Amino acid sequence: MKNKPAILYVFLANAISGISQGMMMIAITWYINNTVDQPDLYNVLFLGSSIISIIWGPYAGSLIDRYDRRKIMITINALGGVYMMLCAGTALVFNDVPIFLVCGIFIITVVFYNVHFPNLYAFLQEIVPPNSYGKITSAVEIQNQLAFVLSGGLAALLLEGVPMYVLETLSLQQYAHILAQPIALEKLIFIDGCTYLVGVLLLWKMNYVGLTERDKRAIPVIKRLQGGLTFLKERPLIFMFGYFSHIFFASIMVCSFLILPSYIRHIVQGDAAIFGLSEGLFALGAIFAGFLVDRIFRKNRLFGIILFLLLGATIYATLFFSQSAMVLLVMYLFLGMMNASTRILRTTTLFQLVPNKIIGRTNSFFGVLNTATRILFILIISQTAFFSDNPDWSMGFLMVMLLISAAVLGLNYKKIQDFKKKTTFD
After folding, report:
1. Which of 115, 140, 219, 330 makes a 20 to 30 Å CA pair with 149?
2. 41-60 exposure pattern, b = at least 16 Cβ within 10 A, e = fewer
């Protein structure tokens, strides 16, 4: 495959930073919700970062289509590394991590996600031939989730320490004074900063040949945004497909970062280990899906997306009725499979439908709409006492949202398929 060395560099940098960022997000989520016991602060933080993403997203999409995407990745990693090191240094001086710095890390990581992933996919579409789109989107999902498996497992161990029975089984009980102790949050922040900077070094050495042409003209941001909106306005089926096929991801973000900590604590009476393990199993399910889904549904990706939306709704229904930690873990394994399958099929289809010169804006628009949808879900769940006091009913709410999305895509199935046949490469 052309540009193979560049792809390997991107994957390696993404894996290293992905492990650390995933571990940091899990740590901060658990820290605010349980260690300092401020779930209301966390809800505000999650909502605030989502609002910032809506404002920032369209502008970021224009930058992605205008500038060298490799340089954008380097800039993101450099800024992230500097901020994390400043936070770690502050914690070293004051012997504690101020809560406002913890909130800042969360917001910056979420905002960077809104640039990183549209930019990553736009870059890969730029350097990969069309007949390899399915392979590359599957590989990205596998790589991202492998990183998250490690981050989930490490988070579970580092937040609570290695359980004594594990140390005894491995005959390592003499090291219990080290391994059984939770790691300080400031050390995790320092590690996260180091991985950002390693990403800068890897991307700096990368060379590639673009297979498509970007529009490098110095067009004002407003005109670029208008061009992206016009593209979608003239192609309403792409808009419909892109939005409703993305609802699954919105539900996952709300479930994992808003509902799950409360669900574990109040419904299944679990701890940080269950939280980290559930996220790790989620990633394992996604990895399994990455190896198989595009091969199975290559000829009919839309059918696969509708199927996985329905299966996802079934999983949320199961969590609504269950109070078992074991059921939660099993369902999260399958939830990871369904979500990853939907993402792979969706991203591959958008690669086929949207030219590379406008893919950054298109993905950013969908990202903004997805973020707005998450905000709506968050407001409904966090500001409605019935849902905020009953995380199991919040699972039922997400079930209904997936059913609606599947219904919309199902009712427009033939129209979308006919449009796709006239537009795509294969």
Report:
1. 115
2. ebbebbbebbebbbebbbeb
| Burial (Cβ within 10 Å: 0-12, 13-18, ≥19) of residue 389 | exposed
Instruction: Report the distance separating Cα 348 and Cα 426, nearest Å.
Output: 11
DSSP 8-state code for residue 175:
G
Residues 279-288: b if buried by 16+ CB within 10 A, e if exposed: bbbbbbbbbb
Q: What is the pLDDT of residue 166?
A: 58
Q: Which stretches of the chain score pLDDT less than 70?
A: 1, 34-37, 148-149, 151-153, 155-184, 211, 214-221, 272, 385-389, 423-426
d(CA 201, CA 224): 31
Closest CA to 119 of 68, 163, 166: 68
- 297-312 per-residue burial string, b: 16 or more CB within 10 A, e: under 16: beeebbebbbbbbbbb
CB atoms within 10 A of CB 180: 17
- Go through 15-28 and write b for each residue having 16 or more CB atoms within 10 A of its CB, e for each that does not: bbbbbbbbbbbbbb
Cα angle 116-254-390, degrees, rounded to a multiple of 5: 165
Length of the chain: 426
Q: Which helix (H) or strand (E) holds 232?
A: helix 221-233
Side chain identity, residue 338: M
Question: DSSP H helical segments within 272-390, as ranges?
Answer: 272-297, 301-321, 325-353, 356-383, 385-388
Give 118's DSSP letter. Answer: H
pTM of the model: 0.77
Instruction: Quote the tokens at residue 138.
Output: 């599957």
Helix axes 301-321, 325-353, angle to 10 degrees: 160
CA 296/CA 285 separation, integer angstroms:
16
Q: Is the Cβ–Cβ distance between 117 and 64 less than 8 Å?
A: no
